[in-house]
Amino acid sequence: MTAKTIKIDIVSDVVCPWCIIGYRRLEAALEQVQGSLTPEITWHPFELNPKMPQGGQHLREHLAEKYGTTLPQSKAVRQQITDIGQELGFTFSFSDEMRIYNTFKAHQLLHWAKEYDKQHDLKMFLFSFYFTDGQAIDQQETLINAVESVGLNPREAIQILEEGTYVDEVRTDLKKWLNKGIYAVPAFIINDEFLVSGAQRTGSFLKIFEKLQDT
Question: How far is Cα 150 from Cα 116, in angstroms, rounded to an integer?
Fold first, then answer.
């Protein structure tokens, strides 16, 4: 039997822990339908902190300002995320010094990486670079190290960032998904028909895949 190709658009930000959790749950569902469904995954930009200045902000301070999160709540959520990540094979290395950053530069490079079929590789690397290694992913040097690590041309990446080659394309894509009502991430749009909002469990994806297998 020939596997059916399905389109999966994922709207996310690389500083969103629930985005990598949601993806790992999607990945687990895809493994269970391997052979019958083949995914074509495209990542789309979302900025959790579009007005964040260069250098970012202390994460705990940011959460307190944006959501009113208390210190005990912050610790509890961090532990919850860490535990879920461990179950899914992803390491979250939260620390008291951790900062959160604007990711517009990262999204420009992710848009570019798609031309070389390296978008997914770069996205996965950036998740780990930030959450596991604690890298400042709003810094050009850090981003260049990331693209080089996945086999992309660092000189071309520098030129893209310095010239703003994909600034307009990324802004257009950001607006596109906001106009479609995507105000929180992760958001998984499957075959332009099914929307899975948030880091849903693997079973939520499997229910959709079962419907697609039957059509």
Answer: 11
Q: pTM for this structure?
A: 0.95
Q: Locate the domains of the chain by residue range.
A: 4-50+102-214
Q: State how far the Cα of 212 lies from the Cα of 197, in Å rounded to an integer.
A: 18
CA 17 to mean position of chain CA atoms: 8
CATH number for the domain running over 4-50+102-214? 3.40.30.10
Q: What is the tens place of the pLDDT at every residue in 42-65? A: 999 999 999 999 999 999 898 888
Render 169-183 in DSSP notation, one character per residue: HHHHHHHHHHHTT--
- Whats the size of the chain, residue-wise? 215
The CA–CA distances, whole Å, from 38 to 69, 119, 122, 145 equal 40, 17, 20, 31
